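Course assignment 3, question 2. Fill in each field.
Student: A.L.
Task: Predict the tertiary structure for the chain below.
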Amino acid sequence: MTDAAHIRSLTALRFFAAFWVVMFHYWPKLEAPATPMLVEKGYLGVEAFFVLSGFILCHVYRTEVEIQRFHYGRFLWARLARIYPLHLATLVGLGLLAAVAGLAGFAVDSNILSWEALPANLLLVHAWGFAPLAGWNHPSWSISAEWFAYLTFPVFAWAALALKTRPLVAVGLAAGGLVALYAGFERAAGFPLTQATIHWGALRIVPCFALGCALHSLWRARPLTDRASALLGAAVCGASALIAAAAGGHDALIVLALGGLIYFLAGAAQAGSQLFGHASLVYLGEISYSVYMICVPWKIVFANSAAQVLELNGEQLPWPVWIAGVLTIIPLAALSYHLIEKPARAAMKSWADAWEARRPSAARA
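Answer field:
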C-alpha cells in the first residue's frame, strides 16, 4: 500500500486548496470591477481540506484501529502538535499587532481583540458555538473544526471499518448524507452550511470528513491499477469542480467533485503516476497550513501599510501592489513553517517520546 508520505499529489493539492482560500480573502482588496464566481467559491477550499483530512487520517490510522493498536492519547497529541503551535502563534501575533496599531493611533477592529472570544480560541472550541463572535485570526475556526473531527475520529474509523467490504455503499451513504445535510441545514438556518464558521463549523466538517473516510475505503478496497484511467478520472473531476464553481453551481456538487479528484489523484499515485509529485509542489503543500493561517494577518498588515505608503483613499489596491501582497505570502509561509510550525511539532513529538520512555514497561505494553 502507498505510504501516506508518498501520496505526494495529495500533499501538493493542499496548496491549491489553500491558495483558493487566499484568493477568496484577498480579491476584495483588488481594484477590479467584479469578483469572478470561481473566486467567490473560494471558501470551498476549506471543504477540500476537510475531505483530505478524512482520507489521510484513515490512511494513516485505520489499520491501527482495526487491529486494536490505536492509541487515542498519542493520536490526539500528534494532531495537536500539527495544528496548535501555529494557531497559538498567529493568535498572539494578531493580538500584539492590534495592540501596537492601537497605540500608534490606528483604528483596530474590535473583533480582533475580543477578550470574550479568547478562551474558546485558546481551547480550540471556537467553531463549536462557544465563541460569541469571530475574533482573533478568523480562519482558525476551521482548525477548531478539525480538532472536533480528531476528537471523534474513532467513530469515523469504526464506521469505515463496518463497511470496509462494501466501500461503494460507504461512499454512497457519505455522498447522500452530505447532500441531505446541506439541503436540510440551509432550509433550517437560512444560509449554506459551507458558509458556517464559528457557530456551526464543527458540523461543517462532519460530512466532508466522512466522505474522505469513505473514499479512502474505496481506494483501499479496490486499488486502481490503470494509471491512464485514474488520471482521466482526476482530470474529469477536477475540471467538473472548476467549471461548477465558475458557473456558481451548488456547493454539494462541487464538494463531491473535489472528493472525486482526491480519490483519483490517490489512485493515480497508487498506479505509479508522478502527477503533482514534483518536489516544489510537494513543498508548497507542506507549507500550505502556514499559507492558510497567515493569509488574513498578512492581508491586514500589507493592505493597511500599502494604503498608508501609497496614500490611497480606499482599501482597494492597484494590480501590481495586490499581486505583490499575494505572492509575498509564500516566502512568509515558508518562514512560518521553518521557524514555528516544524520545530514546534518536532519539540512536541520529542516531549511525547520522553514521556513514553519514562513510563514503566508494563504500562507501555
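Instructor remarks: The chain is about 70% helix and 0% strand. Residues 30 and 97 are 23 Å apart (CA to CA).
Grade: pending
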